[in-house]
Amino acid sequence: MAHNLIGCQAPSLTLPDVNGQMVDVPGSGMVNVPTAIFFYPRAGSYGCTKQACGFRDAVEENSLFRPDRLRIVGISADAPKKQKRWVEKQALNFEVLSDEAGYARKEYRVGKGLLGLVDARTTFVVDKHGVIRRDVMDATLSFQAHVDFVESWLERLGREEGEKSAVPMISEWL
């Protein structure tokens, strides 16, 4: 999907987590690893649970998703208290933040999905420099596609880093 934030610095946000603690989201330059930010319609719903558990399982099973290699942030309009129950029930192992006022959705320009009936299910990959990468995953009904999208971007970012480290620095030539 073409998105007008691609190639731009990710918006800086501060949102409450499931315990009500304020958390900074990329754009602030605080993180030195890529960040996957996924917006989902509603904590506890079938599709959102499938999507979130896909990310949870990827953290446990895929080394690309280790916390030292990727920060995962899930965002919905649900209140922190509702999200906390859901996070605990599903044993989610990444940050889940509340956007009750819709500020994050507005800043990331996330609209409606499923014929305008629900908030869109949209995933962004922000590189370690805080830039939103070339593609955005916007699929309302394909829950696993969001995890697959992030995995393909992590592989691509790894190749790019490898290419940069393979190029000798000018100081190495002297």
Automatic annotation (TrEMBL):
Gene Ontology CC annotation, any one: cytoplasm
Catalytic activity reported: a hydroperoxide + [thioredoxin]-dithiol = an alcohol + [thioredoxin]-disulfide + H2O
Occurrences of domain Thioredoxin (ranges): 4-159
Top-level taxon: Eukaryota
EC number of the protein: 1.11.1.24
Pfam families on file: AhpC-TSA
Protein name: thioredoxin-dependent peroxiredoxin
Lineage: Eukaryota, Fungi, Dikarya, Basidiomycota, Agaricomycotina
